[in-house]
Design a protein that fits this description.
Helices cover 49% and strands 19% of the residues. The protein is of the alpha/beta class. Strands 1-2-3-5-4 form a five-stranded mixed sheet, with helices on both faces. A hairpin with a 5-residue loop joins β1 (11-17) and β2 (23-30).
Length: 202
């Protein structure tokens, strides 16, 4: 996966406390073809971390209300709340994005975001100090093109894609049916509203 293709990429991992006092770790890396200015302009740590934190805080509240996370259904709610969540984000170009999408989904084009869940058994996660959510791969060129085509501000589109990707890492899938799509879109809209970002589906 991207670990093999980004050995020369810049990798900057930072830990931050969220308002619940649980430590969320965010790893950001990029293809060597993605320059530092692009990373600074579109993928600042503060922006991505704020979206990650808002998403996980929202999900925490839903879990307290009985929501089952499909990929973490074997982990009890208390353990979910207490565990340090870890997320890796990798930003790439259109050529590598196409290769990764073909490898992962047998689709021969670059897509906006790919989600690679951690897929760790609950017994293993129970022994770990952290709870790895998985990795998200964002294709920058596709993201920029989509934002322009949809008349959206690029950073707002990135925020939406990041929320969408995290929900996929938790096991939500809009391709399973209309009910699943409606639920996922509702989550996205409510999380974005909390970030003062308009409904992307309007």
């Amino acid at each position: 996966m991207s670990q093999d293709s980004n050995s020369d990429a810049s990798n900057n991992i930072d830990d931050n406390y969220n308002e619940n006092n649980s430590l969320d770790a965010l790893g950001i890396s990029a293809s060597e073809l993605i320059d530092d200015q692009t990373l600074d302009n579109f993928y600042s740590r503060e922006q991505l971390l704020s979206v990650m934190t808002a998403t996980l805080n929202y999900i925490d509240e839903q879990v307290k209300g009985g929501l089952i996370l499909p990929y973490f259904e074997d982990i009890d709610a208390e353990q979910w709340q207490e565990k340090i969540k870890v997320l890796d984000i990798y930003i790439t170009d259109e050529v590598e994005g196409r290769e990764l999408n073909l490898e992962a989904r047998q689709k021969d084009y670059a897509t906006n975001i790919l989600s690679y869940p951690s897929d760790l058994p609950a017994a293993i996660i129970g022994l770990m100090p952290t709870l790895p959510l998985g990795e998200l791969i964002i294709c920058h060129a596709v993201m920029i093109r989509e934002a322009a085509e949809q008349n959206k501000e690029a950073r707002q589109h990135i925020s939406h894609l990041l929320i969408h990707g995290i929900l996929h890492l938790l096991g939500f899938d809009h391709e399973l049916g209309q009910a699943e799509q409606d639920e996922m879109e509702r989550f996205e809209i409510e999380i974005l509203a909390g970030l003062n970002i308009p409904n992307p589906y309007d």
